[in-house]
């Protein structure tokens, strides 16, 4: 059997198939992202008989029903959604959703004299030479004869025969040829993805989450559109709560549903720590509910695939949609989500910039939901999720082949009588003394300020409620929350003046501390031994020049919590490398203590 078939059809036939639900457009209920001018250009290409690219459909497999009969799968449009939606808007006069989830018309006008298209505007509406909305020309009730008479009366310089020919050419747009590539249902998701990437001239790549969302949205029997809207609206609301009123106003049917009431709390919630996209929602819900990591498996299950017999069965489709719906509802549940955010904050993650691994966040939430569903008490759940989250950051566990690792880890957590048993086994194998003394120390040798290892150090400082360097009232957490900046223990200008011109050298993360701007300005470009001597002297004379520390014990405690060695009092530029080594060890020990206390 061939992987695909290539056929020619017409714009009119394709729009008819969509009306009859033979071909499904999964994007039809999502915001239309094309600008109106692009719709205009598409119509112009068709009018001039230019090719507009292939449309790609993917056949849903025929599924065997319980009574032995066959349910025939419809075709899903996986490439060409925006083009077909544009044609439906311009030719059929259908409304599309904008970014505010408002239904609106895209009206394309046509100028018979100049044979050009334009997006309708007020000037066009006042000019009788324009056909202000071409959808009327394509309407079944359109009378070409009456239109020509009226138009030529209002524009006597137009020749009726010429107008007739132009109109006929315009109408023939619906008979324009379209190439349709029909992918066989037997293709696995990886092959479909590869075909899509190779064919798509714009170089756009569909993720497996996109394919999964397509499968979800076209299944009306098991309330797929409701699941999809729950996922879509939640992921939009978490980033832009202001669209709540637009959704409520423009999708009244969904606004009256239970899933909408499950997500409406998001409009009054503000967090920048974890803002999941629709693919994140799908991945977490699928991982914890199905105990699998590969989204391609979700696509297969939603199609009814039996992995053992390789048949497609309706009961697998039904069960998969039921479980996915439950997983999504538990993901968006207010109590679950807010408890997870509190766990993140209790780990020292108070800002999204402190964790760059979305995969680590996603698995941590999947683990939280799994343990909660299994009935573990809150204290054990909090402890396990915090530990595992930091382990995944320390070891960059989900940086490569994340789906395989998701699959591996979720199965082992599900099979463990106690989640700490699995965590302990990973600790013993991957967080040995050798890891901390060698691998982790090497990881700290970097100049990348957004390094996960520097972020772990900051998380440790937040967890320990540390004060900023040379401060006794302002804490590191407050500086991060107020978008404060890191500064150099060995001032950058001082190092440059002493021959250190390599940015990767003087910008080592082991040279960074969070401190108040006033303190940094007071330090200027002085050697650390010099400005620390000033700090010591002000303790005795009570004349503050740098910071506000007025006690020797407080100074030593402040240096310790900021991992600044006391040897810095006697250091000059010649000791910079020695300082970096000493401070890396102190940072490593602080992070290790932080992890062990979680």
UniProtKB/TrEMBL annotation:
Natural source organism: Halobacillus litoralis
InterPro entries found in the cross-reference section: GmrSD_N
PANTHER family cross-referenced by the UniProt entry: DUF262 DOMAIN-CONTAINING PROTEIN, VNG6097C
Lineage: Bacteria, Bacillati, Bacillota, Bacilli, Bacillales
Domain GmrSD restriction endonucleases N-terminal, residue spans: 23-215
Protein name as it appears in the record: GmrSD restriction endonucleases N-terminal domain-containing protein
């Amino acid at each position: 059997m061939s992987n695909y078939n290539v056929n020619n059809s017409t714009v009119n036939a394709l729009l008819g198939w969509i009306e009859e639900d033979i071909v499904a457009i999964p994007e039809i209920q999502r915001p239309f992202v094309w600008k109106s001018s692009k719709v205009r250009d598409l119509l112009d290409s068709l009018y001039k008989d230019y090719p507009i690219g292939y449309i790609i459909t993917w056949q849903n497999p025929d599924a065997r029903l319980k009574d032995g009969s066959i349910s025939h799968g419809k075709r899903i449009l996986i490439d060409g959604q925006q083009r077909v939606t544009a044609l439906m808007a311009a030719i059929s006069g259908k409304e599309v959703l904008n970014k505010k989830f408002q239904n609106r018309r895209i009206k394309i006008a046509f100028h018979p004299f100049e044979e050009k298209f334009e997006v309708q505007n007020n000037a066009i509406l006042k000019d009788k030479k324009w056909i202000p909305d071409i959808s009327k020309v394509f309407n079944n009730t359109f009378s070409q004869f009456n239109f020509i008479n009226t138009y030529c009366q209002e524009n006597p310089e137009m020749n009726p025969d010429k107008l007739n020919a132009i109109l006929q050419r315009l109408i023939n747009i619906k008979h324009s040829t379209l190439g349709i590539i029909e992918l066989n249902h037997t293709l696995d998701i990886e092959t479909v993805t590869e075909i899509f990437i190779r064919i798509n001239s714009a170089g756009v790549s569909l993720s497996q989450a996109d394919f999964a969302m397509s499968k979800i949205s076209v299944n009306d029997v098991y309330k797929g559109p409701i699941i999809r809207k729950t996922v879509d609206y939640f992921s939009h609301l978490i980033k832009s709560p202001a669209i709540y009123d637009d959704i409520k106003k423009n999708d009244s049917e969904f606004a009256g549903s239970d899933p909408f009431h499950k997500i409406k709390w998001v409009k009054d919630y503000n967090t920048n720590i974890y803002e999941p996209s629709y693919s994140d929602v799908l991945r977490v819900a699928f991982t914890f509910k199905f105990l699998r990591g590969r989204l391609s498996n979700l696509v297969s299950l939603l199609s009814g695939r039996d992995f053992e017999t390789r048949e497609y069965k309706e009961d697998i489709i039904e069960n998969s949609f039921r479980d996915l719906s439950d997983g999504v509802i538990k993901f968006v549940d207010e109590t679950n989500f807010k408890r997870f955010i509190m766990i993140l904050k209790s780990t020292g993650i108070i800002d999204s910039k402190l964790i760059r691994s979305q995969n680590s966040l996603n698995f941590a939430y999947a683990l939280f939901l799994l343990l909660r569903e299994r009935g573990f008490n809150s204290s054990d759940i909090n402890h396990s999720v915090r530990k595992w989250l930091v382990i995944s950051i320390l070891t960059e566990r989900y940086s490569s082949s994340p789906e395989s690792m998701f699959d591996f880890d979720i199965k082992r957590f599900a099979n463990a009588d106690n989640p700490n048993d699995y965590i302990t086994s990973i600790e013993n194998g991957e967080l040995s003394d050798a890891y901390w003394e060698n691998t982790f120390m090497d990881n700290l040798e970097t100049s990348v300020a957004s390094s996960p290892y520097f972020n772990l150090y900051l998380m440790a400082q937040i967890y320990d409620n540390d004060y900023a360097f040379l401060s006794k009232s302002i804490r590191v957490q407050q500086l991060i929350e107020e978008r404060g900046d890191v500064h150099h223990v060995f001032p950058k200008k001082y190092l440059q003046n002493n021959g250190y011109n390599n940015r990767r050298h003087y910008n080592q993360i082991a040279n960074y501390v969070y401190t108040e701007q006033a303190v940094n300005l007071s330090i200027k470009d002085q050697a650390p031994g010099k400005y620390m001597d000033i700090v010591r002297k002000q303790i005795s004379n009570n004349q503050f020049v740098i910071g506000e520390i007025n006690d020797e014990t407080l100074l030593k405690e402040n240096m310790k919590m900021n991992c600044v060695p006391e040897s810095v009092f006697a250091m000059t530029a010649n000791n910079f490398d020695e300082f970096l080594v000493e401070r890396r060890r102190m940072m490593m020990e602080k992070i290790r203590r932080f992890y062990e206390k979680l």
